[in-house]
Amino acid sequence: MTNEPAMSADPFQGERPRHTHFHERQAALNVREAWSAWNGFRFADYYYDPEYEYFCIRNFCGTYDICPMQKYYISGPDAAAMLDRMVTRDIKKLNVNRVTYCVWCTDEGRIVDDGTIFRISEDTYMLTCGSPSVSWLRKSAIGFDDVTITDMTDEIAGLSLQGPTSYSTLKAMGLEGLETLKPFGIMRFPFNGVELMVSRTGFTGDLGYELWIDPSQALAMWDALYAAGKDFGIHPYGETATDMARLEAGFIMPDMELSESLKTIHFEHDQSPFELNLGWLVDFKKPHFNGRRALLEERERGPKWTLVKLDIPGNKVAEGAIMYDTEDCDNEIGYVTSAMWSPSVKANIALAMIKTPALKGDIWAEIYYQKELRYYRKMALCEVKDKPFWMPARTRQTPPEVYS
Amino acid sequence: MKRYDAVIIGAGHNGLTNAAYLAKAGLDVMVVEKNDYIGGAAVTREMHEGWFYSSCSYVCSMMRQAIHRDLDLAKHGLLLVPYLGTVAFGDRGETLIEYTDEEASYNELKKHSPHDADAMHRFQADLGRYAQLIRKTLLRTPPDPSSFKPRDIKELLWLAKEFYALGERELYEYVRFFTMSAAEFLEDYFENDLVKAAMASPGIIGTALGVYSPGSAYVLLHHVMGDVDGNVGAWGLARGGMGAISNALCSAMKAHGGELRTGSGVQQILVKGGKAVGVALENGDEIYADIVVSNLDARRTFTKVMDKNDLPDGIYERAENFKIRGSSGKVNIALSGMPKFNNVPDNPYINRGGQGFVGSLETMERAYDCWKRGTWSDDPFIESVIPSAWDPTVAPAGKHWMSNFIQYCPPKLADGEWTPEKRDAFGQTVIDKIERFSPGFKDLIVHMEVRTPHEIENEIGLTEGNIFQGELTIDQLLFNRPFPGYGQYRMPVKNMYMCGSSTHPGGGVSSACGANAAREILLDLKRPNTVPEDDCYDE
Fold it and tell me: What's the mean pLDDT when you consider all of chain B?
């Protein structure tokens, strides 16, 4: 017998997606082999049935792999000042063990990316975001002497646990004191000799947590979580269910509502916070920050576009629809960015970018839909909604409801 | 004393829907309910500590999503969760699994019969075609074929147009279909006994017909025409049990200003000068209203809470002859753990879905023979589902409740009335049968609630415990429901209406009867309509 390494080497190894820290368990549960990729990692679209997984988020609880999400430690005495200069929100107001949602902009006030900032100690922040941001973070640190940026993406295993039974699952796992954890708060628990960090955060509009742990204990944590969640309907969910849940909650999704400014070719095909209805994230009371001047000007004249939540009559999903001011399509006034039939609310919902002045008039969606291969077209008069389609009281309730 | 615009008798889901739409139109409405709890047959009750049973109806697919949406029932706490993975069990314990994944389902069918695996596509297309047409009629008032009113003529033309759109061949097929038996209909498609039995079983649910009785094909269709979020034929569970539907409707009704009085059974509908003027309660109270709406079944409405002398000639007799035979039983079981079934893969999707103990066409027909003789079969058809596997609110964590619907169970026994002993013997038959397919099942039982037609009638007032408020045979459908000439919710006494499942489109938790009746009432009152159109016309 000879050992021929060439025989066992995978000639495609270099182009196969990497495996996340939870891959081993998730691969076993991915009955449908429904994979895509995110930031170089193999990533599930769904595992068994997208709608089943969506309902786990709304009815039981589910886990979503956030290992591919980018995680950076920004530390040192100047960390707060640097972040405060970079993002539009006032980071000095962020207390230790609290989390905040932010956007950061170019000088022109266009969004580079959105993400969350965790203040994990006095001088250390963790920034998480969808796309790799080392380069922008380094640029943003210019002029700050005492700040260190460390890419922790591979060093922290992140798992989101969302849904009404998420709290009961974590309690069953033995996390004492979790009942006092409020939305956007952080708590720490010992787990197998390492620290398990739990934040009450998520991307589903429902009660939920995100778990952060040393990769060495990732699988052990998965096993403990799934053992605890067995009677609470725990199930992994992928991108499809996430996208449904976040749209119902009215959250924006990169590459759907947001075209990252640094990657956008066409003029103003990126977005400003005001255009995405995120003006509440822009704090002009704090000193200078990236994009401040441009954003001040934009606030004065008003955004060109405005992202709106739409309730659309009928049940034909308005995916890719162009919007008009009249039923006869006289003037184009915008486009749908995301659309779905909401199984929880039983409504035909969408997010759409509308030219701001057109918001005063009617909004008609030109919807194309298919019936056994043949295409049909219909016009639907849309209703603008102020509130998220789905945001139950339990999302913010502390202590959360116990299932037993 | 306060006078209401409308009083609705019975806080079942249709009564509440009706009241919600009348209240939404600005009417002052009062719903009276005999029980201390609401919901009628769409009810959740804690029958054993920590276990919440959907005591009567247990799954949902006909609920009009246009109503769910329009009344904002999600905000009022309603979440409908589809469930997956139904397994049919044959006489010899063989199984047929209905997977969510089309490819998997095809492979499964192919194991039983390659022929049937192919034929399934044709079967579903044909059934889908029939279902689609019927679905379009659910949230509409049937036209009166004897009327020359423009509205009726228009509606008749619409219906004719829909029928003709099927094409000539299908038109003939459809008419045949309405009068066929489920078994005969299936013979056209399938060869495998278990496949046939599994597909035929919806044809007898809630019906005093056998799989070989003419008319059972339509009942089959009635059970598969619903959908959950556009997934036709899918069934859902209400989070919190079926009572969550009634509770959400009640909450919506109250949000529009409607009122509810529980523990207030109606003694009689008050009629003066040929007009309904209110109701007299069993406790002697009288509630006056311009309009009286009965959500009770047709038999109960006209023979129990109305004076025969207040009715035009012949109506009382029609009500007495209204076909509303009791045929079903229900056994609700609290379990200390999840049962395991033979010949079923032990995975979280399949082992927890629905179970159809269908046996074979012959077994089902034999069970029907027993019903005819006034007894129950020792090998009945049981349709089971374990809602706690899909809903964390209805049983303690790790424990389960199983809903078992049994066909058949006679309203009266050959050897006399039901007694608690006979009821328990019936329940024993059911668990004996399940034990055959799930050894050790009996050891898991913590509590059991056995319901024969006797209990169902006594508790929620459905005559003979008929779950549809009257059989779904063509003589009692569309404009003939409940009686010819009274298919538009207006009843023979002025200012009196019906809004329950005895009216079009019949049984099932659809809210359609209640909503249709509200639309007719508002039309008579010359008030703007508040009832939405169905959203199925683009399909």
Answer: 95
pLDDT tens track for B338-387? 999 999 998 888 877 899 999 999 999 999 999 999 999 999 999 999 99
Residue B384 token pair: 């089971």
The two beta strands, B29-32 and B259-261, are parallel
Mean pLDDT of B287-301: 98
Whether residue B392 and residue A233 make contact (CB cut-off 8 A), yes or no, is: yes
Dist CA B501 CA B295 (whole Å): 8
CATH topology of domain B3-45+52-80+240-322+472-524: FAD/NAD(P)-binding domain (3.50.50)
Whether the CA torsion B228, B234, B235, B239 is positive or negative: it is negative
pLDDT at B230: 80
- For B81, the 3-state DSSP assignment is strand
Q: What CA–CA distance (Å, rounded) separates A207 from A197?
A: 17
Query: What pLDDT, on the 0 to 100 scale, is given for residue A7?
Result: 56
Contact by Cβ (8 Å): A358, A367? no
Q: Does A169 touch chain B (CB under 8 A)?
A: no
The mean pLDDT of chain A is 96
What is the share, in percent, of chain B residues with pLDDT greater than 70? 100
Contact B538 A49 (CB under 8 A): no
Helix (H, G, I), strand (E, B) or coil at A186: strand
A24 assigned ligand-binding residue: no
pLDDT digits (tens, 9 = 90+) for B295-327: 999 999 999 999 999 999 999 999 999 999 999
- Give tens-digit pLDDT for A303-317: 999 999 999 999 999
The model's confidence at residue A8, banded by pLDDT at 50, 70 and 90, is: low
Check if A403 contacts B (Cβ < 8 Å).
yes
Contacts of A369 in chain B (CB under 8 A): 538
Which CATH number describes the domain made up of B84-113+328-408+410-451? 3.90.660
By the 10 Å C-beta count (0-12 exposed, 13-18 middle, 19+ buried), A162 is classed as: buried
pLDDT digits (tens, 9 = 90+) for A122-167: 999 999 999 999 999 999 999 999 999 999 999 999 999 999 999 9
Which residues in chain A (308-367) have CB-CB distances under 8 A to chain B? 313-316, 341, 343-347
Could you say which residues from 123 to 152 on chain A have a Cβ atom under 8 Å away from some Cβ of chain B?
none
Block residue for tokens 């050790």:
B440
H/E stretch holding B3: strand B3-9
Q: Does the distance separating the beta carbons of A51 and B229 come in below 8 Å?
A: yes
Contact B128/A at CB under 8 A: no
d(CA B207, CA B476): 13
Task: Identify which of B201, B199, B195, B188 has the alpha carbon closest to the alpha carbon of residue B113.
Answer: B195
Residue ranges covered by each domain of chain B:
3-45+52-80+240-322+472-524, 84-113+328-408+410-451, 120-234
Q: Domains in chain A, please, with CATH? A: 14-69+155-249 (3.30.1360.120), 70-151 (3.30.70.1400), 305-386 (2.40.30.110)
> Which regions of A215-346 does DSSP assign to beta strands (E)?
235-236, 305-312, 322-324, 332-342
User: How far apart are the two ends of chain B, measured CA to CA in Å?
Assistant: 50
Please give, rounded to a whole number of angstroms, the shortest distance from the CA of B79 to a CA of chain A: 6
Taking alpha carbons only, the member of B23, B487, B11 closest to residue B253 is B23
CB contact under 8 A, B539 and A404: no
Residue of B nearest to A346 (CA): B69
- Distance in angstroms (rounded) separating the CA atoms of residues A73 and A121: 11
ipTM for this prediction: 0.95
pLDDT, position A262: 97
Q: Tokens at residue B9, please?
A: 């008798």
Any A CB within 8 A of B69 CB: yes
pLDDT of residue B228: 84
Establish if B74 touches chain A: CB-CB under 8 angstroms.
Answer: yes
In the predicted model, what is the mean pLDDT of residues B117-127? Answer: 95
